[in-house]
Write a structure and sequence with these properties.
81 residues, two-stranded antiparallel ribbon, single chain, 2 strands
Length: 81
């Protein structure tokens, strides 16, 4: 079961990342740590993420109004079978 959940999570993550375009403008780096002297504060990477383009359109659909057949008509008797 754990293996199945891991596989499902991996597939969902892969599909989610497939629709994004990620451009890393600047690499990040870890801060240097020195116990005696203040360390370098480090640098957060500069990343631009652009999601997929989605196009939509508005369409009006006419739905016919369906009335039940009057009781005792030929159509009403056919529906009882």
């Amino acid at each position: 079961m754990k293996r199945f959940l891991t596989l499902c999570f991996g597939l969902a993550l892969t599909c989610g990342l497939a629709g994004c375009d990620v451009d890393v403008a600047e690499d990040g780096r870890m801060p240097s740590v020195d116990v005696d002297v203040k360390g370098d504060p480090g640098n957060v990477p500069d990343v631009d993420v652009e999601g997929p383009s989605v196009k939509t359109e508005k369409v009006e659909v006419e739905v016919p109004k369906i009335e039940p057949a009057p009781e005792g008509s030929a159509n009403a008797e056919e529906g009882e079978n």
